[in-house]
Amino acid sequence: MGYLPIIGTALGTVAALAVVAGAVYLLHDRLDRGRRPLVFVATFAAVATISFAQQMLFEADAGGGDPVSYFATAATAALASLGQAGAAFLGGNGFSLFPDAAGDAAGLAWIAANPGAFGLHALFELGNLLSLALTAEFALTLFTGFSTHLSLIQGHFDDVLIVRASTSMAEHARRFIEGAVAQAPHHGPAVISLVRDADTAAEAWHIAAAGHVETVDGDRALREAACIARHLKGPRRAEGRTAPTGRAGAPGKARQGNRSLYVAAFRNGRVTVALYRPDRVRAWGAADWARALDGSDPGAGGEPRAATGIDAPSDLYSYSIEEIKVRQLMRRLLPAHGPGVGLGLRPLTAMVMGDNIERMVLTIVYLIRNGQALCVDDTDAVRPLVPHVAIASAASDRIERRLRRAYPALFPAAAATGAAATGATAGGATGAGAPAPLTPPATLAFFTSKLDMIEQTPLDPAGVALVVNTEPDEGRAPSQREVWHRALERRCPTIDPLYIQYDASERPAFIWENGYGGRERSRAEELKRVLVYGSTADCMQASLVLHRSIDRRAMMVNLRYADADARPDLFDEERNERYLGRAVAAWDDPSLTLYDRESSRATADFISAERLFWEEQANALRARSGRAELTAQDRAHLCDLVGRLEHLRWCAYMVTSGYIARPWDDLAEAFANSYRTYRQQGGDPTDRGAVRALVKNVLRDKHLKRHVALVDWESLPEVDAAIARIADTPENERALAQADVLGWVRSRCNQQADRAIADQFIDPV
User: Fold this and answer.
1) Helices marked H in 89-159 — which ranges?
2) Residues forming beta bridges with residue 499, ordered by sequence position
3) Interatomic CA distance for residues 349 and 459, integer angstroms
4) Against a cut of 0.85, is the pTM above it?
5) pLDDT per residue over 325-345, tens digit each?
6) In this predicted model, what pLDDT tens digit does every residue of 346-387 receive, in sequence order?
7) At 264, which helix (H) or strand (E)?
């Protein structure tokens, strides 16, 4: 019998807590929607009503039938009930199994005799517990919110991310946010996100900072975002602008204290990122913040207008999920610190198969961009080695048609036919004003059978052979790769191909595969190298989507063209610190176009291959000459070789961006018309930058996708002569001289511009 009270007490406590937990769980959805005051008022009213009923029940005989006494009793009970209801939220009423009025007679017999009084008391105690639970929930929410607020304004993070995602892209956005926060839990980014759930249409913003995650409404998210802006700091530029570029010294930490705001929109299979620097964000108004949280695209208002607030990002780029995955593949193929698979150093033969047209086209494009190479024999004769890409697909005709329409310079005969039909000249055309023909940056072959492709594609045992399967491996027996491998070995016994397998669920990695498709490391002579790529989780890394590490190198590439005095070293982060301030300023220049940024990114991706090519050719020169040190003549020769490779890469990038060669005969007339329009619109004839931009726009026609320098290396001096002829007319000469760009137009040397990449980034001396 002694244990029965303890057991009963424990069971009663558990039951009460279960009821309160269930009530809080049911009310939590309403609390999250900003209706906490309504729930508090309803709970307060319920507890006060129950308390009033209790007191009137136990004091019913106190009035003695006198109306005045009943009135006084009711008034006293009402006031006491309000006090008890308030005390319930602070736990001030205590908890008891029986009401005080039951006295010493409390027990099962009393419960049987007074079921109504006991029921009211039970409800009153449950109301007390619920009130205290609501107070605890409010205190915890207040503390979490205040802690998150302090985390946001005190700067324990690198950047601020505002993320919005459509229902179809919710999983990608969640992976991105989780990765961004997990990368640096103590000094990671502050994330304000709205990721829609497919099961509910309700909008709930989430704020994550310094380990805290809080669910808030849109108004709170807006206030926190605006609060962040007041505490964003710009980069320290102690040596960014004022220090002499040639002076040695300890580099400053330009990144320290520098935070940026990213607005990332996940929708329609694409990720669009807008970057804003602190000085611009601090000038935002309420409408700008509302648009940022609303997920509006910069410039989404329809009519063009002056760029202010959210309409003026420092950088804006957009990639499809598939493109991010293919770029991830290229980073594993391109040599980062060593020769890797030799992409960019040896002739490339790529056999690409699959039926996903977008993935196939993207893979082909990026292999062409990054597969350019040069052959230098013992007599220093130079021969370009363009990739050979074979395509096997049930949709090969559609892939070919897509490539022909999007990248006509890959098919020079088709480009010439189309140019003739429109009355213009293009790469491969003939005529007095036509440029020299451009050798296509790749040769393509199309098959409908994978085995036909494997058996008929020309192979180079000294080259790089890639077999790319852009579809998931379905585990056929015998292994598909084993069949392909046997066919390749029969044709070329010394070949060492790399097999590339798309898999959206597996982390990217190099693996070894046996003849049955299993993975192992023993019996190396029977194993095949396989590179797995395409992981959704891996491609959503913040460093890939936000370009933190990618753009640092691209900024230095852009700085090299924007500032002739800057000599950054892309392979030494510490030496680059003193240039970072100027590089960021040049990158944020409003005149810098999307083309400029993407071109710099493409150069930055390939620069490691060019440096390895330099080292390889330098070692060959030392071996032939027997000298330990390179002479000035040797360095000039190496610069020329790297310039040729850079021009090959640039041509491949331009062609796979849709460009064709621009005619040379109308350059002077095109500049004259452009300058006339510029002056009619009130342009300053002495503005050197503006007039220089007019010349550049003539050389690169961004509307018709044509570029005057899209020719082979040997024809670049002819391009320089054609550009110099812009100044042959008196009016053009006067205009160029007035803006002080006449010498720049007449002295352009495209070959030297390509050679200079070695001086700036590759030559270690």
Assistant:
1) 108-113, 115-154
2) 467, 530
3) 7
4) no
5) 898 888 888 876 556 788 888
6) 999 999 999 999 999 999 999 999 999 999 887 778 899 999
7) strand 261-267
